[in-house]
Amino acid sequence: MWSTRSTGKGVRVCILDSGVETGHPLVGDIDRAVAFNRLGDEDEIELVEDTEGDLCGHGTACAGIVRALAPDCTLISARVLGAGFKGSGPVLLGGLRWAVEQGFDVINMSLSTTKRQFAGLLHELADSAYFRNTVLVASAHNMPVESYPWRFSSVISVGSHEEPEPDTFFYNPAPPVEFFARGVGVEIAWLGGGKILSTGNSFATPHMSGICALIMAKHPELTPFQLKNVLYLTANNVGGGR
Amino acid sequence: MSDDLRAAVAAGALGSEDSYRALLQSIVEVARAIFGARASSVFLFDEPSDELVFEAVAGEGAGDLVGQRFPSSTGIAGWVLVTRQPLVVEELENDPRFAREAAESTGFVPKGIMAVPLLYEDNALGVLEVLDRPANAAFSLAEMELLGLFANEAAIALDLLQKARAARAVLESEGGEAEAVARFVSLLADAEPERKEAALRLLKALEELLRER
User: Fold this and answer.
1) Residues above pLDDT 90, as percent of chain A
2) With an 8 Å Cβ cutoff, is A86 touching chain B?
């Protein structure tokens, strides 16, 4: 419904992921790309301008989905994945802190961590984003483990539905997962300019980020609390389906 | 640690390592059968080297791939490990680069991969993959749920396997005697009753010999 009235123009969406392949036909232009690296064995993180693009393809896939829904939004890539698994926790926190400080409108997080040692800091960052009017959209998982940040009430958590329409989403009356977006059999951008078919909450999440961008382009004054209410009221199983 | 206790722990560690590896193998065999897939594998995340290692393989590649390694954040398994998110990718054969890399590393090119992280407590221990379900079967969320259940089992088995290996490493680092005793205890436990009786008689004689001054 929003896609008939909005293109996401003026909304800044940050893809906190593995980087984005610049110039991919499904992604187009990126406003800025940065990468976060760990310095030695310390928890100190450095920020560099990212010239490597996407190391694995996950971030490009997410960026392509946001672009398809909100063609005129501004995309920013913050690479926190791809340089090995070790030390990925502090890098993730460093990247998220930077994205929150930049005041982006939407931060897409198609990832999570199970490390309890990072939960407290992630929670603080998620709350900080919420009060600074940055919407954090995070992938949920349905596995029997505790993971973050999707479980925090200050983020918008996303699972998958099986419907084929990209702008169809459902409110979940049984949290902690709050919304279900398209996540099954999605055509995603693939490294080298290609496309591929994929399934996962990783790809439901950027659908929700794209929908948020469409709404915020029309109503930039909305706080995350108000945005969640708009999402609830326009969900296909609440008011949006009628 | 007392010698008796060390020997008992060693016996447990040696025996259990084989059992947990067999359990992992059984999990990939069942996963492959349930999904009607061409292959299924479990990868262990090896923290010291920051690599993923083939730990159990059923179907295509079984026998050749166990022990092969690659960097932890590469490939579909790498995506799944670093994002902690289950993932399905189909139509992979259309990507020439992926096809070439897969063929070089594993010897065959899958059309589709279902992959799920192996999470136990707050650790990401590895990845479970199921390759090439039947081509005519549309993918559903129910299959993702099922894969998640297998992943939970595989994660527990992988956790036990790693603990058994760690226990063995400790025993080996404390000298070879404890391991030798442990191996004997392990063999004794599995021996036929008559052989066991004979072995115990020999052991008794050995004990007396060692007590002589």
Assistant:
1) 79
2) yes
